[in-house]
Design goal:
Protein name: DUF4369 domain-containing protein
Number of helices: 5
Keywords: Signal
Mean pLDDT: 84
Shape: elongated
Largest sheet: 8 strands, antiparallel, barrel
Organism: Pedobacter boryungensis
Helix content: 40-55%
Radius of gyration: 21 Å
Strand order of the largest sheet: 1-2-3-4-5-6-7-8
Order of helices and strands: HEEEEEEEEHHHH
Low-confidence stretches: 4-17
């Protein structure tokens, strides 16, 4: 009986040691175009993207799973090391993408996320209180949300597209209605 308990204890300790503790923070794709925020705890990963937040639960070892509630697609994240993950869909060829902890000041990145996420929430609230301009405020909310987690290059591209959309629905195209979310230089270049 003691031998069995000893072997069981070794197996449990081995599996616990095999689990890698991921560093919470901003993660960026290898091409540098897309940045997300990941909050890690022992049994889950919370992936915060510009348009959604998904909670992945530990499936086994260093693999976490999220099943989309609408389309039932099974998404996985594997923790490769404390600062690297791979996203994938099981049984789908060439679906693995590597995402690494962003370099630079993690505190600044977290402050950026908090600032622009709160701004996006304010614009979402305006969608409800100012229904006649709800479409406008939704574009502003989308720009702020993108700015909360995209890298600079990705955000500039996205903000340009949002600016063009806003310019289609407003009368005064010279001034951005949400300069706190879309920088003036991006607004002015959007044609």
């Amino acid at each position: 009986m003691r031998t069995f308990l000893f072997i069981l204890l070794i197996c449990v300790l081995s599996s616990a040691q095999a689990q890698i503790k991921l560093t919470s923070g901003q993660y960026t794709t290898e091409d540098g175009y897309y940045t997300v925020t990941i909050n890690y705890d022992q049994n889950s990963l919370t992936l915060i993207e510009p348009n959604r937040t998904s909670v992945y639960t530990r499936l086994e070892g260093n693999v976490f799973r999220f099943i989309h509630p609408t389309n039932k697609i099974d998404y996985r994240i594997e923790v490769i090391d404390p600062s690297t993950i791979q996203t994938f869909k099981p049984n789908v060829d060439n679906s693995r993408y590597t995402i690494r902890l962003s370099k630079g000041d993690a505190t600044a990145n977290n402050e950026q996320f908090k600032t622009y996420y709160a701004m996006a929430e304010r614009y979402k609230a305006k969608m409800i209180t100012d229904k006649k301009d709800a479409q406008l405020w939704s574009f502003c909310a989308a720009a702020a949300m993108a700015r909360s987690s995209m890298n600079e290059e990705g955000f500039k591209d996205y903000a340009n597209k949002v600016s063009l959309s806003i310019k289609q629905i407003i009368i005064n195209k010279a001034k951005c209605p949400c300069e706190d979310a879309i920088p003036t230089e991006i607004w002015n270049k959007a044609n």
